[in-house]
């Protein structure tokens, strides 16, 4: 898998934006990606140094549309912490 296949999209929420001050960034990643894969992909895409990676599986939620119901897709979330001497990711800097 390439780095673009591993990191699918950034997560832009109030809670994830609060972590930017501590160099913690949140991404949606491929379900089969490991912590090592995620760290390498973020380092390659954004030219930064990753300190640690926390991952979690987000379960699909039950949604209803009238009488029809179904589940949203499940996905994997990664919270990436950069090292202290690493530069910030420029993509997130314009959103603060």
**Into which percent range does the helicity of residues fall?**
25-40%
Uncertain regions spanning at least 5 consecutive residues: none
- Helix/strand/pairing class, anyone? alpha+beta
Widest sheet: strand ordering = 1-2-6-3
Topology order in helix (H) and strand (E) letters: HEHEHEEEEH
Radius of gyration: 15 Å
Alpha-carbon distance between the two ends? 31 Å
Report the sheet with the most strands, covering strand number, pairing sense and barrel closure. Answer: 4 strands, antiparallel
Question: How many separate domains?
Answer: 1
CATH-defined superfamily: RRM (RNA recognition motif) domain
CATH architecture: 2-Layer Sandwich
Averaged pLDDT, please? 94
Strand content: 35-45%
CATH topology: Alpha-Beta Plaits
Beta strand count: 6
Large-scale geometry: globular
| Name of the top-level CATH class | Alpha Beta
Q: How many individual helices?
A: 4
What does this structure look like?
With 96 residues, this protein is an alpha+beta fold. It has one domain: Alpha-Beta Plaits (2-Layer Sandwich). The chain has helices spanning 3-6, 14-18, 35-46, 90-93; strands spanning 7-10, 24-29, 50-58, 62-65, 68-71, 75-82. The strands form two sheets. The protein has a four-stranded antiparallel beta sheet with strand order 1-2-6-3. The model has no long low-confidence stretch (mean pLDDT 94).
What secondary-structure arrangement, pairings included, does this model have?
Elements: H1 3-6, E1 7-10, H2 14-18, E2 24-29, H3 35-46, E3 50-58, E4 62-65, E5 68-71, E6 75-82, H4 90-93
Antiparallel strand pairs: 1-2, 2-6, 3-6, 4-5
């Amino acid at each position: 898998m390439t780095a673009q296949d591993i990191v699918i999209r950034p997560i832009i929420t109030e809670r994830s934006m609060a972590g930017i001050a501590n160099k913690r960034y949140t991404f949606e990643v491929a379900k089969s990606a490991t912590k090592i894969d995620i760290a390498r992909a973020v380092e390659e895409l954004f030219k930064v140094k990753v300190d640690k990676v926390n991952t979690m599986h987000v379960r699909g939620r039950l949604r209803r549309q009238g009488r029809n119901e179904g589940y949203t897709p499940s996905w994997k979330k990664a919270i990436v912490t950069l090292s202290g001497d690493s530069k910030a990711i420029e993509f997130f800097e314009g959103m603060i």
